[in-house]
Amino acid sequence: MPVPKSDYVSNVWRDGLFANKVVFCTGGAGTICSAQVRALVHLGANACIIGRNVEKTESVAKDMASCRPGAKVIGIGAVDVRSVKSLEDAVERCVKELGSIDFVICGAAGNFLAPISQLSANAFKAVIDIDLIGSFNTVKATLPYVRESALKYQSDGKTSNSAGTGGRYIFVSATLHYAGVPLQIHAMAAKAGVDAISSGICIEEGPRGITSNVIAPGGIADTEGLARLSMSGGSGRRTSGSPIPAGRPGYVKEISDATVYIFSDAGNYVNGSTVVVDGGAWRTMVQP
Ligand code: HXC
């Protein structure tokens, strides 16, 4: 039974919005990224999702493809974003089978709670390697195709390209590092670096028509991230105990909606930004 579109993306978006577009997503079998990709597929895109677990990645891809007649979704498992070669092979297969890469979501991440006293150098490096170096590797492997897409779909801002948009990066980051939280030095350092990569791409590649933006989710219900970090109050950062201004946790659909906005024609002039999707929670973080 296909998952209803309304579970993954708001009905404000039109069907076919991303027809003939291809999204390449690392960490694409995870809860947040799979929702982002599923929304794009519902709205017309084809997709290539990358993960370490072969069975999970292939099964999520198969399920995503069932959400729209004619949708093509490739799931490539046994790809570790820490390995440049395995990423390059995946990119090559994506372009060979789907024809292009128009949108990239850098979503692969690893995390756990640990105080600095129990955080080994290798543990710190593992998270930096997955989140930060993995995002860098993903950009390196995809950039030639993303440049091609940006050139093809550029818009002058006054008139929309009737063929749609392309040449866009989204990095899935976090808000942990804005004020600092306990037990997350590894993730905070990694995500601060991820934010910096996005800013650098905005500056360097913006003149070629590429946009690069960050989505920073808050505590999103029913995600592995929330489960892993629940020991520190759910989102790993609510040290003050103050309520989320929105009065509830977020849902994956709300991350998908931000993704659709950034990749759509409505997001043409959004570049180098961070879209925080956390119900206002980061505004309540303990400030110095
Ligand atoms: C302390 C730990 C640890 C823990 C692992 N390590 N877990 N140290 N506390 N709970 C240490 C290990 O002892 C080892 O150090 C080092 O980390 C590497 O561990 P490995 O298991 O060999 O690494 P690897 O198999 O590559 O696994 C990477 C991982 C793992 C990050 C450690 O948790 C993982 O694969 N996670 C992927 C899934 C995941 O985390 N999803 C959640 C994403 S959510 P030593 O010194 O012993 O060699 C997310 C949201 C962030 O990221 C933002 C939140 C709001």
Automatic annotation (TrEMBL):
One of its GO terms (biological process) is fatty acid catabolic process. The keyword Cytoplasm does not apply. Keywords: NADP, Oxidoreductase. Its EC number is 1.3.1.124. It catalyses: a (2E,4Z)-dienoyl-CoA + NADPH + H(+) = a 4,5-saturated-(3E)-enoyl-CoA + NADP(+); a (2E,4E)-dienoyl-CoA + NADPH + H(+) = a 4,5-saturated-(3E)-enoyl-CoA + NADP(+). GO terms for cellular component: peroxisome. InterPro entries: DECR2-like, NAD(P)-bd_dom_sf, SDR_fam. This is 2,4-dienoyl-CoA reductase [(3E)-enoyl-CoA-producing]. GO terms for molecular function: 2,4-dienoyl-CoA reductase (NADPH) activity. It comes from Microthyrium microscopicum. It is an enzyme of class 1 (oxidoreductase). Transmembrane segments: none annotated.
